[in-house]
Amino acid sequence: MALRLSKRHARRLSMTSLIDVIFLLLLFFMLSSTFSRFGTVDLMAAEAAQGTSGETRSLFLRLTPDQISLNGEVVAVDAIEARLVSLRSDRDAEETQVLVSLAGTVTSQRLVDVLAVLRQQPKLAVTVLG
């Protein structure tokens, strides 16, 4: 017994539905994305020193990819705040200048982490050296 198999005809692909799908995807991604800033970090460029009436205490923070040293003493990121408090305890009324020096290939995320800790301290002026 011979069976006749009918040949299927290929249907033309409609481009109209494809364009509609692409438009809807584009619209979805445009409306679901955000265009706002997540956070900003204020940086102050180093300037020439000017005479001031008050005395300013300076601290030196060296930031490398592997470690952080504050006035030559190696500290961890979470211990920076406690170390700053101990260094500034005797001179609470004065403003403290912190010079941040970058050495090696420090990532921007590491710098932002350190600046976020420094930003929490009152009367602290932070200058990032290039």
TrEMBL record:
Superkingdom per UniProt: Bacteria
Localization (cell): Cell membrane
Keyword Transmembrane among record annotations: yes
Pfam families: ExbD
Membrane topology per record: Single-pass membrane protein; Single-pass type II membrane protein
The UniProt record lists the keyword Cell membrane: yes
Keyword annotations: Cell membrane, Membrane, Protein transport, Transmembrane, Transmembrane helix, Transport
PANTHER family: BIOPOLYMER TRANSPORT PROTEIN EXBD-RELATED, EXBD MEMBRANE COMPONENT OF PMF-DRIVEN MACROMOLECULE IMPORT SYSTEM
Annotated family: Belongs to the ExbD/TolR family.
Protein name: Biopolymer transporter ExbD
Organism (species): Tritonibacter scottomollicae (Epibacterium scottomollicae)
